Fold this protein.
Amino acid sequence: MVDKNIISNVGTVCDKCGKCVTGCPAQINITEILDGAVYDIETDGNPYDCIECGFCTSCCHMGIDVMEIIRSIAMEQCISCGVK
């Protein structure tokens, strides 16, 4: 399972500033997904819809590879629902 209480490689934790959300072309509410709470695909978007543009990672002032985390969460979704 992906650790959604994300800690970057420099030991910082996502402060949920929302910069990654505002420019996401897939309109994924990344902060809700990383929050660790149950997120609603209808309102927060589906991590599987990530187009891997890299915007979220490039704008993260905490140095977190957000795109990789979203990709991991999407893959986890596929595995848990049986998609191969």
Observations:
- Residues 19-81 form one domain.
- Helices lie at 19-22, 30-34, 41-44, 55-59, 66-81.
